[in-house]
Amino acid sequence: MKIDKRKVSYRFSNSDFVHHAIYFQDDAKVVLLSPFNLFLKDRGASAIKTSERYAGNICNFLNFILERYQADGSKFWRSASENDLLEWQQVQVKERDKSKKTKPSDKTIFENASLVHNVYRWLRMQNFPVSMNPETKDWHFNYHSESMLTHIRGQISGTSANRKGISAGLPRTGDSSKNSMMIMSKADREALINAYTDPVFSACFMLALATGMREEGVCQMPYLGTGENIHIRPYPEILAEFGSAKTFPFTVVEKGKKRTLEVNMKAWDSICKSYLPYYFKRRKLLIAKHPEIKPDHVFFINRLGNPVNPKMISDRTTLAKKSLKNFPWTFHSSRSWYATQYMINNLTKSDIKDRFYNAGVEDGLRKQIGHSDIKTTYKHYLKLASIIIAVQDRDIGSNTWKELEDTADALIANAEA
Fold it and tell me: Were 104 and a residue from 108, 113, 272, 297 both cysteine, which residue would form a disulfide, CB within 3.0 to 4.6 Å?
């Protein structure tokens, strides 16, 4: 008995779908696990890499249950509990520590477990008979106490609000550890934008700066939107829908959670100026290489005609950083930059200095960056904002996108067609 996945494509209700499907195999018998496949259709059909990640984690968890409890029948998944999800994390940590490896990291294991938990939350919302309680946190594994990797690094990888040092655009001391609070200066932002050899990754980074999205969300930006994103068009065509509006909404799925955020219109203008000169040639390559993909659903395409995915962004950012001396920031640092900018743009200087709590600002930041523990996030970025003000580094205000327009013009002139 085992759970496995495969990619499927089909046409339904005048629309084409491509995503992974999960099935239960027992000897010669194969049973589709329809509830999970409905989830993958709902959350993974827009990006095949996302679908693959979701399906892989679901399979891993369900196979863990099968092996551990020798479950009988294809409906065993209904009985999965918070304790099963907790033990799944514990086994991964213990096996990794026993083999003296560093991967998967605590952060990766927890994120994968969160994804599975979100799947079961979705199943319950769709009235499937599942046992897992989506409201409890009993499935959270105590990495701080039980992970050897945590003891070595001194913190849960990427999950703690506590930080060791602070960098706010001041002279660097050579500390580029993950414990630092990351605030990129204007020079840092423009340096990374210009360091990418393929302008599509510069455009991706600019979109991340404009929205606070993760790599996963950036890759979901369409050329022409559908469904909840049907209004999305390249600039300036999008103005026909929004006119003089400063932002437009974009509905995205990150870490299995759907949210609607706002995209700065000036930023979108800059992104389109820098990238559209390359898009149409790449679109032809995409159509030739990937006939299964609707080209209107993909905006970011690399020079080889492949849709940009999070791994490409990570690899190209690592390569770009090699050309920059002692460059500590990553693509993901754009989220910290955006959140800090959000605090400065939506609170007064005195509010920031007095650590004033504003429920409206907190709610707006939550919707934009998709954090669940938003009060901790709010306090964290309020502190960063106060540091920026203290050192008079107010370089992330209203002129930011005019500055990036100049960078976009340089990219158009210098990058390869």
Answer: 108
